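Hi Q.,

Before the meeting this afternoon, I wanted you to have the magnesium ion prediction in hand. No need to reply - just skim if you have a minute. The sequence and ligand are here:
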Amino acid sequence: MKGVTVLGSTGSIGVSTLDVLARHPENYQVLALTANRDVAGLLAQCERFTPKVAVMADEPSALRLTEALAGKGIPTEVLCGLRGLETVAAMREVDYVMAAIVGAAGLLPALAAVRAGKRVLLANKEALVMAGRLFMQEAETHGAEILPIDSEHNAIFQCLPPDRGAGLEDRGVKRILLTASGGPFRTTPLPALKTVTPAQACAHPNWEMGRKISVDSATMMNKGLEVIEAHWLFRASADKITVVLHPQSVIHSLVEYIDGSVLAQLGNPDMRTPIAHALAWPERIESGVGSLDLFQVARLDFEAPDLLRFPCLRLAFEAVHAGGSAPAILNAANEVAVAAFLDERLPFTAIPEVVEETLQTLPVVEPESLQGLLAIDAEARGVAEQAALSRV
Ligand code: NAD
Ligand code: MG
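Predicted structure with the ligand bound:
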């Protein structure tokens, strides 16, 4: 029996994780659940799973949840804020931590799980984009296992031979092929992009996801963040990572070897597959995902991404080449720009402009510490807010 904490349990990945866990009550015990401000959502999950602890982001929400739980006689203890998240990520009886908070807010709780030496099921790619070097170093120091939940990285993990500390070249790997659907605007005429709405940007053709990652998929910043994520997870230089547009989202990514072999992982686009894989690894468990019907799929298409249509992808490659603080700046500016777009304060096409201006304004430095990184993140948010305001 493994004890599990689900950080961000009310989100898209959190709900899929609980769906998989509920299929295997004999193997997993849900010990802690967390949400931002969705009291009703977390209450319903507590009723179903009776975790030991539930965490809300702020005190008023925590108080409301405490009262509601008491009213129903549910014995779950309620904590709040970052301290609460770090506590449930590191609790002694917890074996596995699903890191599924969205954005930079997920970094410190995920890092707490890493420092406690847990198996970390990493959905929160922003943690690696901001602090990849530190995150991977801490995992090594504390013996934490990091298993990728992002479908592409989970696919790559499945197609790679065991790590055993060797680099990609030593394992005969030539390159990583990261697939991308191209999102809802892959073929939209470029002039029409100026006026797209949040609802249009969040209507992904193949995946149902949270709003922030849906916008990231529409700009392809998501793929840019994933290039940086792959760079840290698999110790791959950016020139060994090729992005391939594959509109059907059936191949989740591929690994090419020096002998010409190319291994791919395929499946229906449903996050319960990588979640079940990471929970059970190296075993396999049932996930609830149906069989892939290749006759129904019938064809698989591939094309090169157009960097004029998707400037965010270009910016992410530039940031990974620049190194140091550039990815953290890129990530912070993108979060600010996406939030402004979702609030209808910024046009869709201004998202990459805000990110580029922020990257041009701030110097690239080598962050010395976690505090240094958090300061860079805060500074980049300030610059990006100004850049967004000037484009309203
Ligand atoms: P979501 O918006 O649906 O859910 C986010 C969760 O985090 C919610 O439970 C929310 O309450 C919580 N949260 C948000 N802000 C918080 C804060 N400041 N403090 C504490 N908790 C907070 O997002 P999602 O789509 O589930 O994505 C989660 C992460 O997984 C993201 O990093 C995303 O990039 C990654 N991811 C998602 C998918 C997907 O299919 N949804 C696929 C790959 C990777
Ligand atoms: Mg992905």
